Fold this protein.
Amino acid sequence: MLRVIKNISPIISKKFLRRCPQREDTILILIQGKRFASSSVSEKFAVKHVDVGRPIYFDAQATTPVDPRVLDAMLPYLVSYHGNPHSRTHAYGWESEAGVENAREQVANLIGADPKEIVFTSGATESNNMSVKGVAHFYAPRKKHIVTTQIEHKCVLDSCRVLEGEGFKITYLPVGPNGIINLKDLEEALTPETSLVSIMTVNNEIGVTQPIAEIGAICKKRKIFFHTDAAQAVGKIPLDVNSMNIDLMSISGHKIYGPKGVGALYIRRRPRVRIEPVQSGGGQERGMRSGTVPTPLVVGLGAACELAQREMAYDHAWMEKLANRFLDKIYSKLTHVIRNGDPVQSYPGCVNLSFAYVEGESLLMALKDVALSSGSACTSASLEPSYVLRAIGTDEDLAHSSIRFGLGRFTTIEEVDYTAEKTIRHVERLREMSPLWEMVQEGVDIKTIKWSQH
């Protein structure tokens, strides 16, 4: 079969071909009007790296590049099929509507849902706001209690704080040093007034995976709705909303190699979950999310979900291979390196490390040819240490020394080796400049020193 992928970045094309040996298609790629063909996608793609000076991308939890196959699916809806999907009187509208409904089915299939349970949104932030505020407002004043955790995404925590200002009671569950909640704490926190439990599946900073199926079973037994922010989990680990008893699930397009500006919210129909709409308008998406559905973006989200479902096992094995290789190199050369979060019950593509006696911002500046972050992209402008790391009990100095390494579908072994070697070199250099490191080398216990203030 011949597949045509047009006008995509040469470096992404190269990585796409290198990363997909299981595909037997002949692929024709058009870059700036030139034709490049590969009879076997396992062959190396002979295109020079034209992005000279651009850093290696290691921030996949912040966002991911659009997969060329997703762009391939989107292009017709950006040019030819440009009708409003809500226009019911002509072919342009029917074509776009068909694309939207096909995407709805693709998203539903990935999580084991019914297509009618999928509502398209602008992203996981909107989906989280709709879930937390929508359920809270609909079931108030009879139920005015919500349970969440201290390490949720900022949009969930801020939504809860808004509700607190409206008179709702919010319980913020603590997590253990490994970042995972204690199920006994959850059970004890539930009351007859609890309307919702909101706990994320995979944490965006430290990658830990919560026991979602067990949480869902507890909530079902107590007849309480369960929402999970699965932006970092959908398409990366197997999820089934029915077997896990999930009532609402937030999904983001740009975390799974789809376009930015689109996401979805799964809302269970039986037993029915009712939400109060956050925004008003034309009543699209069955009245739960008014506004014209952006057909090209939704089609891209659907294509990304279909690809993720088909290649999930392969991608996960690739993440494990890269993560293990990276950690082996780091641990073989450096001491006093702490991995934040549970090393087993976590997504391997998110590696959060603290390098003791090294300032994280200094290390980030030294690694300027690698795109990294010290935490969530939504809070990275703050100089305060990560609230997620503080919640798991990390010392403030270690929290300030943490770096998140985000591996993705297009990350190569060469990039992992380069990043590991450069990290080792700069950590050693920065430690040599640190008087604290010198004291540690001399056997001084830093924690026993009483520092005087001047």
Notes: Residues 1-12, 21-50 have pLDDT under 50 and may be disordered.
